[in-house]
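Saturday, quiet lab. Running sequence design on the structure tokens for the scaffold JK sent over.
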């Protein structure tokens, strides 16, 4: 059933659902903002374990719903609940559409519009020339694919709807909470994200290897692992960028020769990697 839910959710997300507003997490932003401003809540969410305290009520509600619905109407309600949660947690922004907007603006020489489109993909204001924008968008596609798609799928396969919600909501956690600035909270959030990203990012790198240049991807992975920990930054992000560049056979020193076709190549790599995952999961479903 899990594999069927996954296929249906991916099809709906890619081809049937145009309205993405209802899948945004604005309610979660309001929830943790309210919690942070509450006297007791502000104290709780300023601790190292604050991110887990924020997530706990949402996750408990989903776990209870998952437990209550199990077996009702022959599993139909559980099936629909899993489908709805997974569909909500995927995306909601579409990498293809965002990349198309960027390439269209770049092709027309509208640098300001291209920069705005790049900011949506990169989750922040990009810097540099047009060549720099191409590089930043290409690299953002490689690691955003894990944040928006593969990480959600991985934890859905492991924990069901609870896992998908855990990953999506953890990614929605703020860097810092208004009214409770705390380095402990920031460290706890980074540790939680690191734990949740560790396995899916490496599974995605293996998919990059199978969908792209196998030897270059593994060489890039080994090279990244040898780097000092202080230059890793956000671990999964750095790994996926370096391994993805290896799969695409792009070297950092080739930046001055970059062209928009690299963005299309990165998107193609992501979707081929998703196909690799689905084939492997389908075979496992048939075997077990």
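Result came back. Writing it out in full:
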């Amino acid at each position: 059933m899990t594999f069927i839910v996954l296929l249906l959710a991916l099809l709906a997300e890619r081809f049937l659902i145009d309205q993405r507003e209802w899948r945004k997490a604005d309610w979660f932003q309001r929830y943790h903002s309210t919690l942070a401003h509450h006297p007791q809540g502000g104290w709780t969410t300023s601790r190292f374990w604050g991110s887990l305290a924020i997530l706990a009520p949402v996750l408990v509600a989903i776990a209870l719903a998952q437990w209550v619905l199990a077996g009702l109407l022959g599993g139909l309600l559980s099936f629909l609940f899993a489908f709805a949660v997974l569909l909500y947690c995927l995306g909601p922004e579409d990498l293809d559409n965002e990349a198309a907007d960027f390439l269209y603006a770049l092709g027309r020489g509208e640098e300001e519009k291209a920069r705005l489109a790049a900011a949506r993909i990169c989750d922040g204001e990009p810097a540099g020339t047009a060549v720099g924008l191409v590089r930043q968008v290409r690299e953002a596609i490689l690691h955003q694919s894990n944040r928006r798609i593969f990480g959600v799928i991985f934890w859905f396969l492991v924990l069901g709807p609870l896992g998908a919600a855990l990953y999506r909501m953890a990614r929605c956690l703020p860097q810092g909470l208004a009214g409770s600035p705390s380095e402990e909270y920031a460290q706890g959030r980074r540790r939680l994200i690191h734990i949740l990203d560790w396995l899916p990012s490496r599974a995605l790198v293996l998919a990059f290897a199978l969908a792209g240049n196998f030897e270059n991807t593994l060489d890039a992975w080994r090279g990244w692992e040898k780097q000092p920990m202080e230059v890793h930054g956000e671990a999964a992000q750095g790994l996926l960028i370096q391994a993805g560049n290896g799969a695409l056979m792009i070297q950092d020193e080739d930046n001055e020769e970059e062209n928009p076709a690299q963005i299309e190549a990165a998107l193609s790599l992501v979707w081929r990697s998703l196909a690799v995952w689905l084939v492997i999961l389908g075979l496992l479903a048939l075997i077990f």
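Notes for JK: Residues 2-287 form one domain. The radius of gyration is 20 Å. Ask whether to fix the surface positions before the next round.
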